[in-house]
Design brief:
CATH superfamily of the largest domain: Metallo-dependent phosphatases
Number of strands: 9
Helix content: 25-40%
Strand content: 15-25%
Largest sheet: 5 strands, mixed
Number of helices: 10
Bound molecules: manganese (II) ion
Strand order of the largest sheet: 3-4-5-7-6
CATH architecture of the largest domain: 4-Layer Sandwich
Radius of gyration: 19 Å
Shape: globular
CATH topology of the largest domain: Purple Acid Phosphatase, chain A, domain 2
């Protein structure tokens, strides 16, 4: 009888503090395998530290859209000087050459097998890192499971809370968001999938505490605030009980940008950057002034 415990971790977004707590919890629970579903880095500026842990624990690691941004920025060398874009450039400059070469080689999806149980893992969807498989998108979930050879389709990217369903006789699971979930304060979610005797015997949604004050200190020491304070205020706000503020800020930015320019994306954007909403500095800084009472940096 073989029992395998697989930790599935998605969307860390550079939150190395949360990742360390997840690893501790997984080790306590006798996890033998680790899977990372993409967006390991970007948003919080602790990408190298995050990748050091990811690379130590697993070779089953996917590329997310946040890794893809850096790769395409490297290829195209966009000269976008928007303040909002500085967070991406900061991470691009900070990442070691070795880590950059590592993320370049990561796959968008992977087929895995544990004791006869077959899994298809993806960041967004089996076809795209950027496609969003929300729970309500039954059309897409049906499309991707109808002819699925594997027993399970497992993904992240939408930052919904962890959910799983049986669709077309397949397990469909969104593994939530470990590093920047808008639904928890100082808590990270991940999944422990247990395979026992050739069958999935348990799906355990874990919630582990992490120290948001430690993240605040690390942000202050990182140098990112010299480039742009707004993005860090939104990201830190998102994990410290102000995700509503973050949500409202970005929606207002979107509305103003559309009213002002009639578009959200750069004309010269290619690839994944066709999805990257880039706001003018006057909008970005204007809203920062409006929301400054809720900012901590
Ligand atoms: Mn993503």
């Amino acid at each position: 009888m073989i029992k395998i415990k697989v930790a599935i971790i998605s969307d860390i977004h550079g939150n190395s503090v949360a990742l360390k707590e997840i690893i501790k919890d997984a080790e306590k629970n006798k996890v033998n395998e680790y899977i990372f579903l993409g967006d390991q880095i970007n948003d919080f500026p602790f990408g190298n530290e995050t990748l050091e842990i990811v690379r130590k624990y697993s070779d089953k690691v996917l590329k997310g859209n946040k890794e893809q941004y850096l790769i395409e920025y490297d290829e195209e060398k966009y000269d976008w000087d928007n303040i909002q874009f500085k967070n991406t450039i900061f991470m691009y400059n900070e990442l070691t050459k070795d880590n950059f070469e590592y993320i370049k080689k990561l796959p968008h999806f992977m087929k895995l097998e544990y004791d006869g149980v077959k899994l298809l893992i993806a960041h967004g969807s089996p076809e795209s890192v950027e496609e969003q498989l929300y729970k309500e998108r039954t059309d897409l979930l049906d499309k991707y499971t109808k002819n699925l050879e594997e027993d399970a389709l497992i993904f992240g990217h939408t930052h919904e809370k962890i959910w799983h369903e049986n669709i077309n006789n397949k397990l469909v699971m969104n593994c939530g968001c470990s590093g920047v979930s808008p639904y928890y304060v100082g808590q990270a979610e991940y999944v422990i999938l247990e395979i026992n005797n050739g069958k999935i015997s348990d799906i355990d949604s874990r919630l582990v505490k992490f120290d948001i004050d430690e993240i605040k200190k690390k942000i202050l020491n990182s140098g990112i605030l010299l480039e742009d304070k707004v993005f860090m205020n939104l990201t830190y706000g998102g994990i410290s009980g102000h995700s509503e503020m973050r949500f409202k800020f970005l929606h207002e930015a979107r509305d103003i940008m559309l009213q002002k320019n009639g578009k959200l994306y750069r004309d010269n954007a290619k690839g994944i950057y066709k999805y990257f909403k880039l706001y003018d500095d006057d909008i970005w800084l204007g809203l920062a002034e409006k929301y400054k009472s809720e900012f901590v940096f």
